[in-house]
Design goal:
The protein has about 280 residues and is of the alpha/beta class. It is built from 11 helices and 12 strands. It has helices at about 50-60, 95-105, 120-125, 130-135, 150-160, 165-175, 195-200, 210, 230-235, 235-240, 260-275; strands at about 5-15, 15-25, 35-40, 65, 110-115, 135-140, 145, 180-185, 185-190, 205, 220-225, 245-250.
């Protein structure tokens, strides 16, 4: 990234050390708001999409901070592996993102919050008061999760070959102890019972639509036409039309990870949309 400054940064949270990568424009002449980038399921800031987004934003004159959610691992680098016992709770992510927003708000007067996939769901789920008070001027959700409660059990059974209700019963019995179960991208992982419940319990929403009405800032949702989640996105069009503060865009040909130069299209659409 010629001419840019890359800095590894970290903050201390209740669960331990969280790390991020801050990329600033050469000479400090940023063109506009700083982007805070949140990765998808158990990913990290060095995954191809996030690194590409930071490159493209820097080339366009924008600073960015890409973070790694803690996920129960201090100074976490790389994807969370299926050989790592899962102790973190899914619902800890918004608080982690809030801590990064507070850190960044001391360095940037304007912030655009950007989440991909599960990260898109998580940035949308931040409390409205947090988004009001921490210099956030817009929220971008790239291919955010849109799984309804009705779909959850069927998808879990199809992916992991076990009834979700049965596994949730085992998780409740395990409490803070561990059970082996399918979780996120892992066919079988050691997971704390309370952690499993935080990912799949009936009181947990994995549908970004459940958060958009309360979003207090302008929001942009972008999907690729080749994303497996695109069908759910198209079926939500009527609800989305009733949310005037949410703009919806589609990138024809793009998959869930905006590969093959579609990340360029994604950044172009975001920058054109910025309020």
């Amino acid at each position: 990234m010629t001419g840019a400054s890359q800095t590894r940064v970290s903050i201390d949270g209740p669960s331990g050390v969280q790390v991020g990568r801050l990329v600033t424009v050469d000479g400090g002449r940023a063109a506009g708001p700083t982007f805070l980038l949140v990765h998808g399921s158990w990913a990290h800031f060095d995954m191809e999409l996030i690194r590409t987004l930071q490159d493209l934003l820097q080339a366009a004159g924008f600073d960015s901070l890409a973070i790694n959610l803690h996920l129960g691992v201090d100074d976490r680098q790389g994807f969370l592996g299926c050989d790592t016992p899962v102790t973190a709770r899914f619902d800890s992510a918004p608080k982690e993102i809030e801590r990064w927003l507070r850190w960044l708000s001391h360095r940037a007067d304007r912030i655009v919050l950007f989440g991909h996939s599960r990260g898109g769901l998580q940035v949308a789920s931040l409390a409205p008061a947090v988004l009001h008070g921490l210099s956030v001027e817009a929220v971008v959700m790239a291919a955010p999760m849109m799984e309804t409660l009705d779909e959850r059990g069927a998808r879990y059974a199809a992916r992991f070959g076990a009834p979700l209700a049965t596994v949730l019963t085992r998780a409740a019995a395990a409490g803070d102890g561990f059970l082996q179960a399918g979780l996120v991208n892992c066919r079988a992982v050691q997971v704390r019972g309370t952690s499993f419940q935080s990912y799949y319990g009936a009181d947990v929403s994995l549908n970004v639509m459940d958060y958009l009405a309360a979003l207090p800032k302008p929001g942009l949702m972008v999907y690729g036409s080749e994303d497996p989640g695109f069908a759910g996105f198209t079926s939500a069009q009527e609800r989305l039309m009733r949310l005037p503060h949410i703009e919806v865009q589609t990138i024809d040909g793009a998959d869930h990870f905006f590969r093959d130069l579609y990340a360029d299209d994604l950044v172009e659409q975001v920058l054109q949309w910025l309020p």
